[in-house]
């Protein structure tokens, strides 16, 4: 027997209509937040950044590919990783389908990571992705947009991520609980240690080109990225929700064949 509450169709409909009002309110609030994002002041960028792309060396304006807006996903793939972060990979699984639709709205979507281009290209082939992905190796781009930190910052509590300062990171001995620790599991899946893995962070930044001038418009991090996970939008509507037990993210080529 199910442990979940059950009822008649009439009871379900009454509860559903009550929930509908809350859903409509959330939609209205979401629309308002979108408007407020678009009203944020733009910050001019005069610093030069260089990237390596499939087409060769590129500047930040080059990543726009002739469009006026650029959305960058800060994908956790450091130079010392042997594979991309599994959580970032889950988010990026939806990019191939989005890219063409965004392009028709004058928006370019690109991932950016610090790993050398050859590593990114090999991983793209493994995952079957075709969206643009640039290497910022040797550039300050990831540092300036708060998704890359140094050992010193990590050790001394100097990391400011998601607009908050984090406490100093201290190593700890391996524990049986590590199987439920996302950082430990993801570091191993990315082929590196926890300290190195967590010096890279995920995020998303929006840029604008207007009259030849480059601006930074918006950035979000951590749980602010939830809305970009296409699978979460489906799971939040499934009967058991996200149903998260332990560390459940996997790359799509690592799930058991069923």
- Strand order in space, largest sheet: 1-10-9-4-5-6
Strand content: 15-25%
Give the biggest sheet: 6 strands, mixed
Order of helices and strands: HEEEEHHEHEHHEEHHEEH
The geometry reads as globular
Low-confidence stretches: none
The average pLDDT score comes to 93
Distance between the termini: 27 Å
Q: Your description of this structure?
A:
- There is one protein chain.
- The protein has 258 residues and is α+β, with helices and mostly antiparallel strands.
- Helices cover 33% and strands 18% of the residues.
- The protein has helices spanning 9-38, 86-92, 95-103, 117-127, 141-144, 151-156, 182-189, 194-198, 230-235; strands at 43-44, 50-53, 56-59, 69-74, 107-113, 133-135, 160-161, 164-165, 203-210, 213-221.
- The longest helix has 30 residues, at 9-38.
- The strands form 3 sheets. It has a 6-stranded mixed β-sheet with strand order 1-10-9-4-5-6. Strands 2-3 form a two-stranded antiparallel ribbon. Strands 7-8 form a two-stranded antiparallel sheet.
């Amino acid at each position: 027997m199910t442990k979940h509450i059950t009822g008649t169709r009439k009871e379900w409909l009454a509860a559903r209509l009550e929930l509908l009002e809350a859903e409509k309110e959330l939609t209205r609030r979401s629309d308002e937040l979108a408007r407020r994002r678009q009203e944020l002041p733009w910050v001019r960028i005069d610093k030069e950044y260089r990237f390596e792309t499939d087409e060769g060396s590129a500047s930040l304006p080059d990543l726009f590919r002739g469009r006026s807006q650029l959305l960058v996903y800060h994908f956790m793939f450091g130079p010392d990783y042997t594979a991309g972060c599994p959580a970032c990979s889950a988010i990026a699984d939806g990019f191939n389908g989005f890219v063409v639709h965004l392009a028709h709205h004058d928006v370019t979507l690109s991932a950016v990571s610090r790993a050398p281009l050859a590593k990114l290209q090999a991983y793209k082939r493994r995952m079957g992705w075709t969206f643009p992905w640039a290497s910022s190796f040797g550039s300050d781009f990831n540092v300036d947009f708060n998704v890359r930190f140094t050992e010193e910052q990590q050790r001394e509590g100097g990391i400011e991520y998601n607009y908050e300062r984090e406490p100093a990171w201290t190593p700890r001995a391996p524990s049986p609980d590590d199987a439920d620790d996302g950082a430990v599991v993801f570091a191993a899946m990315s082929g590196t240690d926890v300290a190195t893995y967590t010096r890279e962070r995920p995020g998303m930044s929006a840029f604008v080109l207007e009259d030849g001038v480059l601006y930074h418009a918006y950035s979000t991090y951590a749980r602010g990225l939830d809305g970009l996970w296409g699978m979460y939008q489906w799971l939040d509507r499934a009967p058991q929700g996200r149903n998260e037990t332990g560390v459940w993210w996997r790359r799509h080529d690592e799930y058991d064949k069923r």
